[in-house]
Each structure stands twice: as C-alpha cells, then as structure tokens.
Write a structure and sequence with these properties.
Four copies of one chain form a homotetramer.
Chain A: H1 3-19, H2 24-35, H3 44-55, H4 58-75, H5 83-88, H6 96-105, H7 113-122, H8 125-136, H9 145-164
Helix pairs in contact in A: 1-4, 2-3, 2-9, 3-9, 4-6, 6-9, 7-9, 8-9
C-alpha cells in the first residue's frame, strides 16, 4: 500500500460521507464555529484544509468506514438480533459509537475531547440535521454517523489549536 | 488492604475535594441538572448516592488523588520547569488532565463521554466557580480540579442511566 | 430492558463465541494461566466465574456482538471495499479491533492493559488456535475474535486482582 | 510557544530520562528487538530516529514530564498519604501509570497497544533494569518510568510499521 492508496482511501471516505448526507464543507463549518471565538482571523478554507488533513489519517479512515458500514448494514437488515435493535434505536447504553469516535478525536491528542462531547450534546449544524433525519425517516440508521462527524470536527479543531502554536505535530 | 481501607480512601478523597472548595452536593447538583430532563422524578438524594458510588471506586480515587496532588504541588512551587508553567497556566495543549478524567468517566462505560465534554465546555455550577477562582486568585492552580469534577458528574450520570434500565453493572 | 434481558444477552454472547469456536472454559484457562503465579490457590471455577461476571456487563456484550458481527459479515462478502480487504487480511495497520477490545479490558480499570497486550502478542491456548484457523481456512475471518478473547481474559484477570484485595469494585 | 520551544522541551525530556537512567539508545534497542522479525533490514539508526520523532510530540513530552515528576516527588517525600504509599509500592491496582502511557502509545494509533502490553509484562532490556533498581534501591521510585519507556518504544514501533507502508501519518 503506497501513499497513493492512502489518498484513494480518503477519496472513498469522503464519498461515503457524501452518500450519507455529509459534505466536508458541513464539517468545516462546525470547526469554524468552534474555533472562531479563539482565532478571529480563521477562515473557512483553513478549516476545510484541517478537515482534509484529519481525513488523510488511516486510523480516521478506518473508524469512518467501519462505523458507516455498520449503519448501512443495519438499514439493509443484514445485522442479527439483538445488535440490530440496539443499532436501529441508537440505544443510549450502546457506547461503541463513542469508542470509535474517540479513536478519531485522539489523533491530535486528548485536547479534542471537550469539543467532541459538546458537539455530541448540543448537535449544531449538520449534526442536528443528521439527528432529525434519524428521527423522521423510518428506516434511516445514523447511530455511528453523528458521532463520527462530531469527532472529525473536534480533531480538526485540535489540529488548528496545535498549529497556531507552531508545533510540529506532523510525523 | 481491606474493604474498610477502600472506604477510608473515599473519605480522604471527599475531604480533599472539600479542601479544594468542592462538596459532593455541588457535584450531585450537576448530575441532577444533566439528568432531570430524562428522568423527571430523579431526586437530589439519588444523585448524591450515585456520586458516592462513583467515589467508592479505586480507579476514581486514584485519579482524583493524583490530579489534585499535582495542582497543589504546583501552587507550592514544588514542580520544576517547564511543567510548572504548563500546569500554572492550564495550557490548552496540555491534555493529561483530560486523560486522567477519562479514566474516571469510563468506569461506567463510554456513554459518559458526551456529558463530560459538555460540562467541560459549558462550565455550569461549581465548575464555573472553580474556573473563576483559577482566573482571579493569583496563586491558585485548578488545572486538574475542574476536569475531575466534570468527570465525576459525568460518571454518576452514566451510572443513573444504566440503573434506570435495571442493568447489573455491579461487580 | 430488565435484568432478565441483560442475562439473555449474556447467553446470546456466549452462544456466539461458541459458534466461532471459543468456549468460556477456554477463556477461563487463559485467566488461570495468567494469574496462577500470583495466586497459587486460584481454581479454574473461580476463573470461570470471573469470565461470566465480565460477560454480564453490557459494554462487554456490545463490543463482542459488534466485533464478531463484523467478522461474520466479512466472511459472507457483505462488506464493501476497501474495508472488506482490510478485515479479510487482518491488516496490521487496522486498529479498530484493538479499540473495541480496549473497551472490554477497561471495565475493571486500566490494570488489565498489560495482560491484554501480552496475550495478543504471545497468543497462548485458544488465541493461538483462532489465529491458526484464520491462517489455514481460506474464507475464515477472525480479525476481531482473537483480540476480543484476549480482552475478556485480561478483564477477568483484573477483576480477580481487585477481588483478592477485597475491594468493592461492584456497583 | 514556537517550534524552537518544542525542540527545547524535547531536549529537557531526553535529559530527564537520562537522569533517571534511561538513554534514547536504550529505547531504540527495544524498538529494534520488537521490529527486526518483521523488517530484517531495519537499522538501529532508524529506530533511534523513530524514538526522536515520538519524543518531538507535545502529548508525549507532557506525559513523560508528568509521570517522572510524580516518581521524583515521591522519592523526595513531597507526596501526602495515601498516594505516597501507593506510588512508593507501585501498587498493582494503581492504573494511572498505564493511563499516562496509553496517551504516549496512541500517538501513532491503537496498533501500538500490543507491543506496549508485551514490553510491560516481559520487561526486556532497560525495562528490566529499571524494575530491578526499583526493587533493590530502598528509596528509588520508578512507578511511572518503566511504563513510560515501554510506551515510547511501542509508539516508535508503530511509527515504523506505518512508515514501511508509506503512509502519510505526518501532520
């Protein structure tokens, strides 16, 4: 697997998010909303760039592919009981969606945790829309999707916080 | 170390929180605020009981003792640089306070993550007071304390969510 | 969902492990192997009891159900690319199996981490057998199963370590 | 804080490890031992470079500074009871050392978890020496140090695994 392949997987990941109704611009807007209070000059382009960098990471791609796959297989009735009902109802005691999301949040360290929890609770922008769709469309399953989107936005925000302080988080 | 010792350590932990300006009733009020929307009949006594159960866990006691000790040693100028400045300024890129808190949140599973992040961001009740004190008192260090209090409240809330569904999380 | 339901889910979880070739006695033997050096009087019955207590926890059940479901859906060719190949080949850079397992290990605190890593690396007993099967049977996918079994054994060992010191980890 | 400062903190971190009896070459040897079975051409220089990259990360520096500080303050009798005894005896039920180490391991994703657990259990090379010193010298406290060294080696190994597959984990 070479560098090209990794970029290919990013393209597949972005396309999959799009199919589920989430654009990278939607996520960039969440990042701007979270960070503009701290960095008044922050632009939407910088937020979008940060989202793309997060999506370049293999750990992040794997978590997104796995979570959305579980949502889609539940919609297609390919998951057995009792897991099917747990996923279909977004059972509040099912924590695997949070665990998968944590592996996204953590790619820029634990400082993303607060923003993740906040987004997951308040559900602004696209996260609210995903949640409404889940409640309105009878057969729609977005148990993993909303947490995943919050996690990407939280990680992209943490990356900006690190960058502003000119820290080589790279490599 | 017998069961009595564990209860002793809980008493020491509660006393240490008290010394730092946080009562278990303050934490119970955060729990009630978080959960009353879901369980209208929930009482302050039940929230207090849940906080006490969380504080009975060794993993929780250890995280609290370690975090508050670091706050206090920083106040006493016993920590060397560069860590001293990082802790004194509650550097936003220092994530060890979040990591320690995560070990508290997780005692009732990952479902507490959302509430932890929310409390840490919005800083209601006692968490806001701790934060104000940090900003007003020149020599006061509460880098760990505010996250620890949010984590205890989030764990106690997760415990209530599990209990209401009559699940033997015990043992 | 009442207490009975939770016990039902434990029975379903045990049956699913059995279908994948793992008995709770196999896991109890791993626990005995890990702990007998520290507790010479430890019996196989006590280890089995500890495994059953771990399997009673909802967080554990959810991780097992989710992981094994992903293994089985991959075998049935119901997962899309590129995730299908990643799961089929147990790609060493895919870390979601470790993340799910961590949520099992952590139910008795972070002290189980060491035993989990050791079992995952050395692959004694049933874990080695799962791994051999994965390598010999062309269509067999056990990407999640081996980590899950190591995680259950590590958690059951951590529980014994807590119990011996008479600590109320319950509740 | 600029890029220079971050490199400064790395130098301080390396010096602190050295004061506690651990050189970066010692850690590089652990990495070589872990990885040479998979990559026969791997050199000690490449392992050393990977260790240095890990030590460049702020999250890693913070965990090391915090953990070693707690070891040293315990030696100096500056920690109150009951935490002092817990740290002095490296109480097997104290898990904060594992938690701090996890934040180091995770900088290159969860794939480092297995190597961390293995090193922590088998204690090869410098990790064994640290442990022996802990047991022989009456006043020596290395409760955090051994886990921290295992975690740095595990993270550096994970970094090599990612690199060999030419993945841009950077940034």
């Amino acid at each position: 697997m070479d560098k090209g392949q990794n970029t290919d997987n990013r393209a597949i990941t972005i396309k999959l998010l799009q199919q589920r109704g989430v654009s990278i611009e939607d996520i960039a807007r969440l990042v701007l909303e979270l960070q503009k209070g701290y960095y008044p000059d922050l632009t939407c382009e910088e937020c979008l760039d940060s989202v793309l960098r997060v999506l370049n990471k293999r750990e992040v791609q794997n978590a997104i592919l796995t979570g959305i796959t579980l949502d889609m297989l539940t919609e297609k009735n390919l998951i057995d009981e009792p897991l099917a009902s747990i996923l279909r109802n977004d059972d509040s005691l099912y924590g695997i969606d949070e665990i998968l999301s944590l592996s996204i949040v953590n790619v820029y360290g634990s400082i993303g945790l607060t923003n993740f929890g906040y987004l997951d609770k308040v559900k602004p922008g696209i996260i609210g829309s995903i949640n409404d769709k889940k409640n309105s469309a009878k057969n729609r399953v977005n148990t993993f999707l909303d947490d995943i989107v919050a996690a990407i936005a939280a990680a992209a925000s943490a990356r900006i916080a690190h960058r502003v302080r000119a820290v080589p988080t790279d490599d």
